Amino acid sequence: MTGIALIGWGGIAQAVAEVFARHSRLAELSAVLVRPGRLAAIPTVATIEDLLARRPRLVVETAGQAAVAEFGPAVLAAGVDFMAVSVGALADADLHARLEAAARGGGARLILPAGAIGGIDALSAMALAGLSRVVYRSRKPPAAWRGSPAEALVDLDQLQHAACFYRGTARAAARDYPKNANVAATVALAGLGFEATEVELIADPAAPGNCHEITAEGVSGTMTIQLTGVPSASNPKTSMLTALSVARALLALDGPVVV
Predict the structure, then answer these.
(1) Can you say how many angstroms the Cα of residue 54 is from the centroid of all Cα atoms in its chain?
(2) Are residues 108 and 130 in the same domain?
(3) How far apart are alpha carbons 125 and 119 in whole angstroms?
(4) Domain harbouring 188, CATH code
(5) Largest CB tally within 10 Å, which of 10, 47, 72, 85?
(6) Residue 98 burial by Cβ neighbours in a 10 Å radius (0-12, 13-18, 19+)
(7) Given its phi and psi angles, is residue 229 left (phi above 0), alpha (psi -120 to 50 degrees) or beta?
(8) What are 92-143's pLDDT values in tens digits?
């Protein structure tokens, strides 16, 4: 098996390709699954069967939670590693179970990148000794929440001050805000799980970018991670760091030193 295949050719996939091109490694991106007629910087295919026929070593989903459900099980069952950028899809317990079963049956791995947040390595390490509480807060400009249920909860156009419009579990956050709360799912999977991880979603006209915060308490200590990401130029709902996180993970696949 050779090469890395992509599903979707939106902002994240294009940013990953740009990074690979800067490192003179664009040829390693062997194919991308896109809608017929869509142009891309790498060879395109129209079906998952055509994508798998190219025998990629890894398939990377960059097309949203629905694409994880549609293509993930088939890729894993074929024995090909699958990187799901839309981690929030795993808030669906049935899909999560199907992906794990397909990975075990195919002898493949389901890979989840850190995405727009840091500290996931420390959080998962803390979980080994035991965690008592994990809180994830997402604070973004009002425009980032347009097209989500937040529109019915706060007046995003007239908002003058920060408004916390959601407090609840990571599972509900990832389910109800699929384009905004993938980080909530990543934090949940690294730590206390979907039901025990507390999530707060905030619209703030003064937010300097997409602000993420993790607070964790456990046997091994306490941790607070704060990160302000520059929104993606193509999609304000996600951070530029999301694509860079994916690119870094892919570039490290063959690196002599992996950090």
Answers:
(1) 25
(2) no
(3) 10
(4) 3.30.360.10
(5) 85
(6) middle
(7) beta
(8) 999 999 999 999 999 999 999 999 899 999 999 999 999 999 999 999 999 9
pLDDT tens for the 259 residues of the chain, in order:
679 999 999 999 999 999 999 999 999 999 999 988 788 899 999 999 999 999 999 999 999 999 999 999 999 999 999 999 999 999 999 999 999 999 999 999 999 999 989 999 999 999 999 999 999 999 999 999 999 999 999 999 999 999 999 999 999 999 999 988 899 999 999 999 999 999 999 999 999 999 999 999 999 999 999 999 998 888 878 889 999 999 999 999 988 888 8
Residue 144 sits in the same domain as residue 222: yes
Asked if residues 132 and 146 have their Cβ atoms less than 8 Å apart, the reply is no
Q: Is residue 77 part of a domain?
A: yes
Other C-beta atoms closer than 10 Å to the C-beta of 249 total 19
Q: Which residue range is the domain that position 176 belongs to?
A: 120-238
Looking up residue 64, the CATH number of its domain turns out to be 3.40.50.720
Pair 223, 131: CB distance under 8 Å: no
Q: What does the DSSP assignment read for 193-225?
A: -TTT-EEEEEE-TT-SSEEEEEEEEETTEEEEE
Q: Which residue reads 């989840």 in tokens?
A: 112
One domain for residues 68 and 146: no
Q: Which residues are catalytic?
A: 212
Three-class DSSP labels, 102-122: HHHHHCCCEECCCCCCCCHHH
- Chain CA centroid to CA 170, Å: 14
The β-bridge partners of 163 are 203
